[in-house]
Amino acid sequence: MGFDEIALTYERQLGRGLRLAGEGPEYFARRRAELVAGHLRSRGRTVESIVEFGCGTGNQVAALRRTFAGARLVGLDISRGSLEVAERRHGGANVVFRTPAEFDAPAGADLVFANGVFHHIPPAEHGRWIRYLVRLLRPGGRLAIFENNPWSPAARLVMRLIPFDRDAIMVRPGRLAAGLREAGLEVLAREYWFIFPRALGFLRGLEAPLRGLPLGAQYLLLAGRP
Asked: By C-alpha distance, which of 167, 98, 107, 100 is closest to 128?
């Protein structure tokens, strides 16, 4: 399914799957941004420029802007229809949207962020796109990738409920981490998040201690460019 065709219904389709968690897309976007920000703060990193790879209609953009206030943000996607929606909703002085073909800036991003992108890319092309993302990072920059956990029954069920995810190929974290290392990055963290639905929200304080176990619906790979 082409993302140009679903640009106007993307969030509705996404919400259809996430209703099992009792949360909307905004909750997960905010938590992802907070998790990455926590890692960067703990390492004394500041973020003045962000590239979001696979930004779609901009579902993650608002959370990144709030969390990294004042940072310049470039949203990248191959779907021009999605970019048009994102531009209408989120475009501004410090936020622009481009296709990857239109944006190959010299290494300068403090943070490159991707959520749920690689399971839509044929595995044979993962290496090419990882190398592209590495080129966008400044020395010392960070790459944060969130992907759906293939060992999570909840993640698999949610993907079956979302039409644009039904033909996606889930990516094992070890395979993706190996690709990052092959591209010259150091993998700094591999964590699993989003274990408990809203109905069990009182247990969410356990997610941090359990982040090393493959229980969460998504995993985070954080890598750095030396």
From this structure: 100
